[in-house]
Amino acid sequence: MMNLRVRQTVAVARFELKRFLLARRWIGVYVLALAPVLLMYARTQIRGGNDSLLNPSQGFATVF
User: Fold this and answer.
1) Interatomic CA distance for residues 61 and 64, integer angstroms
2) Domain count along the chain
3) Is residue 37 classed exposed, middle or buried when 0-12, 13-18 and 19+ CB atoms within 10 A define those classes?
4) Minimal CA–CA distance to 40: which of 61, 12, 21?
5) Over 60: is that where the pLDDT of 35 sits?
6) How many Å apart are CA 43 and CA 51, to the nearest integer?
7) Residue 64 belongs to what domain range?
8) How far is residue 57's CA from residue 16's CA, in Å, rounded to a whole number?
9) What percentage of the chain reaches a pLDDT higher than 90?
10) What is the pTM of this model?
11) What is the pLDDT, as a whole number, of residue 15?
12) Phi and psi at residue 61, in whole multiples of 5°?
């Protein structure tokens, strides 16, 4: 009986999480959350790739 309840709970949680993460209204939030990562990647590619990797906090501060 307990095993059935655990499987049902996991199934419902998986369904709800998938529904929540794939909702269209969250796409903008995901893009905004990914923006700093993309900015840091672009900065390392433009500058040769190794200055921000030596001191990531300084590079992150420079971007913002």
Assistant:
1) 5
2) 1
3) exposed
4) 61
5) yes
6) 9
7) 24-64
8) 36
9) 14
10) 0.46
11) 92
12) -65, -35
